[in-house]
## 1
Amino acid sequence: MNNLNVNMKNRTIEMTKKFAAASSKFGTEEYKTLQEVRRDYPSYKVVTIARKASKSDSSAFKGLTYEYMEKYIAGHDDEEKSIMLEYMMLRGESEEAEEAFAESASYQEIKDWFLDTFPAIAEFHKKREKMIKATRQKKEVARMAREQELREARRTALLAV
């Protein structure tokens, strides 16, 4: 269950804001679940946690630095270097920008421009994220199977005594 978690290390029962709101209504499934967990762990403190923003946001790319963008643009620019000139304008590094005392656009604005200019980068990252997610899922399934085998072996050993 993603909405309710027993944290053994901190000795807490953690729940999301949504689950907390639903569990505050007497008779709901969330209320019953919370009461059951509280009976099992009477000394644990009940806390409401805020979910962290997902780091797998498709618009957030690890390693998408200015240096990376410059290398990519250099390798994919036309003969007039028009894309690099646009990039330099955004960074406030072009002659025109320097004459106007223009500041650099924000990283987010430059990143959005870069991904709009080179949509293949965004597609590549989406494809790679799917591959990583599939690998993680396989690893988790294997881990759960090993844990189940260990539980069964322990149960068999205890019954054999």
## 2
Amino acid sequence: MKHRIRVSGSLSLLLAALIWGMAFVSQSKGMDYMGPLTFNGVRSLIGTLVLILYLLITGKLNKEKRRKTDWRMTLWGGCCCGLALTAASTLQQFGIQYTTVGKAGFITTLYIIFVPIAGIFFGRRASKIVWVGAVMAAVGMYLLCMTERFSLGRGDSLVFCGAIVFTVHILLVDYFSPKADGVMISCVQFAVCGVLCTVGALFFEQPSWGQLWDGAGTLAYAGVLSCGVAYTLQILGQKEVNPTVAALLLSLESVFATVSAWGAYKIGFLKTDQTMTGRQISGCILVFAAVILVQLPVRLLSGKKKSMEEQHKKK
């Protein structure tokens, strides 16, 4: 029975990674119909509605649950996370206009390396493995993004900055999630992101119902599947799967982004050539290897430490 539970949990996480990886394609395609702020605003509002529906179905909004909820911490956490999510997703969405989907996927995944490094500023020492991973990622980034003129493309720079802000977002989630319900915080953060981006779109872009109708498919995928369904799958999957395995499965998001982008280009869904050179593929491999390296050792060692403590207690 436990084996079945683990398999279903792993499949949930794998499906979440697949949805998020393919979301880069919908984000790129969405730019054919509307501006980045419009796209981010509408998809975030759709994600908010999906999560509200999830909260209603699971009964987390009934009277008893509402009384126990720390609404002050939930709203404060949701607003802080929402501001960071707005900045990160906007940088990523603007950047994806000027780079390939595959490169955007791998660059975004760098937040996994940035998080332990950022922990240094909060008194947490980064292990030697983290620094080795950082060097590998830097070399991978060079191969993936740098041109013969030794310049970083505009899109790559924006996505890279987005990855840094996603690091801030993760640290905020790490701080607030133990203090309040994670799904409720996520619902509030999507609402904040949706409102801010929509207001920005009204000021800086010219959104129209025609644009939304033409891009309805990409918005539905990014809003319903990427924001709502994938997040729920992550929550359900991580309840049943070892954290190390969960992190590795979710890391496949970058691989799925590259493969789905190549397929989308081949069938004519994306107009921009998504094919990578041998040099860029080598960069992707290095970045992905660095991401795996950073995740494995610390979590494996912590797992061994726990098992040793349990054995000691039994004795």
